[in-house]
Specification:
Elements: H1 2-21, E1 31-39, E2 44-54, E3 59-67, E4 76-84, E5 93-104, E6 107-119, E7 127-136, E8 141-151
Antiparallel strand pairs: 1-2, 1-8, 2-3, 3-4, 4-5, 5-6, 6-7, 7-8
Length: 152
C-alpha cells in the first residue's frame, strides 16, 4: 500500500517537472503581405506578394510572386522557398532556399535560390522583413527585397 502511494507520487512529480520545465511550442500564424525589391540582373524594380505558411517552430514555407512593371516582355517570377529561423536571442534572422521560375514573353527559366534575411519581432502583429536572394538558373540574379507580413 505504501509502495503504491510512493509510485503514484513519484509519477505525478515527474510529469509536473516536465510540464513546468518544458517550454510551450508556439508556431507563428499564417501570414500574407506585399513585397518590393530590385533585381540587379534585369536592372529593374519589382513588386509582388508572399504567403508565410508555418510548418514548424522554426520553419516556414514562403511562396511568392514578383512582377516587373514597365519592363519589356512583362516578366514575372514565382518562388517557392523554405525559411529556417536558427536559434538566436530574438529570432530575427533566417536563411533558406527553394525553387524559382522566371518568365518573360517567349520563354521561361527554372532554377533554385538561396536567401538570407531579417524579420521583425514575432510579438507584433505586422512583421517587416528585409531579404537578400541569389537565384541560380540560366540567368543568375541577385535581388534585394523588403516587405511586410500580416497575420491572418
Amino acid at each position: 500500500m505504501v509502495l503504491a502511494g510512493l509510485v503514484a507520487v513519484t509519477t505525478s512529480g515527474v510529469a509536473q517537472r516536465r510540464i513546468r520545465g518544458g517550454r510551450a511550442v508556439t508556431v507563428e500564424p499564417l501570414g500574407i503581405g506585399p513585397r518590393v525589391g530590385y533585381d540587379f540582373d534585369v536592372d529593374h524594380l519589382f513588386v509582388g506578394g508572399q504567403l508565410n505558411l508555418p510548418v514548424g517552430r522554426r520553419w516556414a514555407l514562403a511562396p511568392s510572386v514578383e512582377f516587373y512593371p514597365g519592363a519589356a516582355g512583362a516578366p514575372y517570377r514565382f518562388n517557392a522557398d523554405l525559411k529556417y529561423h536558427p536559434r538566436t536571442a530574438y529570432g530575427f534572422f533566417y536563411v533558406g532556399g527553394g525553387f524559382s521560375y522566371f518568365h518573360v514573353s517567349g520563354g521561361g527559366d527554372a532554377g533554385g535560390d538561396v536567401l538570407a534575411g531579417w524579420e521583425g519581432r514575432r510579438a507584433y502583429p505586422v512583421r517587416p522583413f528585409l531579404e537578400g536572394k541569389v537565384v541560380f538558373s540560366d540567368r543568375t540574379s541577385v535581388n534585394v527585397e523588403a516587405g511586410l507580413n500580416f497575420p491572418l
